[in-house]
Amino acid sequence: MTLNRTTRLALVASVVSLSLLAAFLLGLWLSPTGDVSHAGHAHAAAEAETVWTCSMHPQIRQGEPGQCPICGMDLIPAGRSERGGNGDGVVLSDRARALIGLRTAEVRRQPDAESAVELLGRVEAAESKRRDVTSWIGGRVDRLHVATTGERIRSGQVVATLYSPEVYAAHQDLLVARRQVESLAEGSAASRQAAQAALRAAEQRLRLLGVPEPELADLAEADAPTRSVQIRSPFSGTVLERSVTEGVYVKTGQPLYRTADLGTVWVQLDAYERDLQRLEVGQAVTLESEALPGARFEGSITFMDPTLDPVRRTSRIRVEVDNPTGQLRPGLFMTATVAASTPGMATPLVIPDTAPLFTGRRSVVYVEHNRDGVRSYEPRTVRLGPRVGSSYPVVSGLSAGERVVSRGAFAIDADLQIRGGASMMMRPDDGTASTVEPVLLDPEERAPLRLVVAEYLAVQRALAEDDLPTARAAAAALIPTLDADLPQRAESAWDATRERLRGHAAHVANSEEIEAARGAFEALSAGMEALLATFGNPLDEPVHVAFCPMAMNSEGARWVQQGDTVDNAYFGDAMRRCGEILEEVPAGAFLSPPEPKVVTGSNPHAGHNH
């Protein structure tokens, strides 16, 4: 639902007010009573000590001053040691947790049974099986042999009798022509030929009026012109609608009955937009109805409506079902169960739907840590898939076995907001959040991307070894791998990603100097990160995202590599180990979105090391 600016401001104001109220209540339980303290406050007075770090390599942390073992720069103070905790965390006592009703839940694997989607729908006659029984001649309906809807008719069955002046006149001409031929049987050849021509013309006239050949022979043998014309159904089916009544006049081709063969029916399901990502053509569906207790029917999805109802926010899903016994009647309500485990995540990690706090596209959860018997709760940005029942599948940001706050997260976030920490309210909304959305593929569908990643890694290794010819050759080999075909649902995202990679790979392949190749490699690496964030890691082993703050004229640059030892592609042998590993992306997992820069107070660079 799209909100105008005024409504959004009102909602934000309401959330802030609730945040302040929750923070005020939480403040009643702070450290003066011994119930609550913040991570980094416990034992800080007794155990505070200075930690020395490198402004270019913040992973270096030492208990005494000196020089950075990587770049040789003088170390600078970083503040208290890690024993003081994380300033973005909140520590709660047992009493405080009870007062706010805090509950946690384990990040777990979702059983396959929980991944099913339940939908409601209604039986309809298949459009491909619908037929109209029409009148092949104009006239008055004297009798309807099938007078009610719901009746079954056979192919060739007489369904109506009409009086047609045209057929009456044409039949009379046929009988006259026949008698003329008989009377001139002994006449001259010319007269016989003329009589035969008149007979053939009368027969052809009846054919053009639609009289079938079997009836034409009977009409030719009649003694008097017929006043009644029989209309037969050319196919079998069930009458869904009767369009005429006795005594009315109909035109040639006018429908008399609408019928359908109910041996195969459609079940039209309504799927909410949150479920659409987990449905696709070909999926098996199990159907049940309260009107048919104990009966189960099997079908498959044959069509998904590309449009969405703007009011109900649903899309039509068509399931085709065999109905040999006729139990499934048009209009019958059905409950459908679709075994729709998330593609690429056969048993995905899930968290309760009460755990995440949403700000725009971002999702924030509070993760519980237990350090030396002290429980703290720290915010973490995660990526979630579409909601499945009462759970959200986790795309990235959490590991199995971790515990997240499932109740009370808002109170913790409110306190963190008061302290100026990285609370939900301090994180950017849709306007600045990452717009990369994951495309969930199973391992087989993702397999064509393995060569893409492998060739990129060959470029990275060659640049780290100062080997320009090999880097150029690997970049050239990368380009044809981008013609890989992915499933239709991934085409749009893949087209944008591969064109981005193609242009930068060509730049590396055509570079005459290694510095030019490294400049293009930075953009190529950004495209590779987009691939990992959108489609996940297609390799059977993890890859790592690394960062060097001194690359690109000290503006910093990232790259993707194998192994957890920094292998700097921007400096090669000159500073091959300069940098840090930012994130590991396991096989099949997605690269996490970048953490937002939290602005607190008047200093936009607070918390950054320089």
Explain how this protein is built.
This protein is an alpha+beta fold and 610 residues long. It has four domains: 5-110 and 346-426, Beta Barrel (conserved putative lor/sdh protein from methanococcus maripaludis s2 fold); 117-126 and 261-338, Elongation Factor Tu (Ef-tu), domain 3, CATH 2.40.30.170; 129-260, RNA polymerase II/Efflux pump adaptor protein, barrel-sandwich hybrid domain (OB fold (Dihydrolipoamide Acetyltransferase, E2P), Beta Barrel); 443-585, no CATH class. The strands form six sheets. Strands 1, 5, 6, 7, 22, 23, 24, 25, 26 and 27 form a ten-stranded antiparallel β-sheet that branches. A six-stranded antiparallel β-barrel has the order 8-17-20-19-18-21. A four-stranded antiparallel β-sheet has the order 9-16-14-11, with no helix packed on it. It is elongated. The relative contact order is 0.11.
Rounded mean pLDDT score: 78
| Alpha-beta content class | alpha+beta
CATH topology of the largest domain: conserved putative lor/sdh protein from methanococcus maripaludis s2 fold
Poorly predicted runs: 5-13, 23-48, 79-87, 342-346, 429-435, 596-610
Percentage of residues in DSSP E strands: 25-35%
> Mind telling me the CATH class of the largest domain?
Mainly Beta
Largest sheet: 10 strands, antiparallel
E-strand count: 30
Radius of gyration: 39 Å
Number of helices: 13
- How far the N terminus sits from the C terminus, by CA atoms, comes to 42 Å
Question: What best-fitting shape do the alpha-carbon axes yield?
Answer: elongated
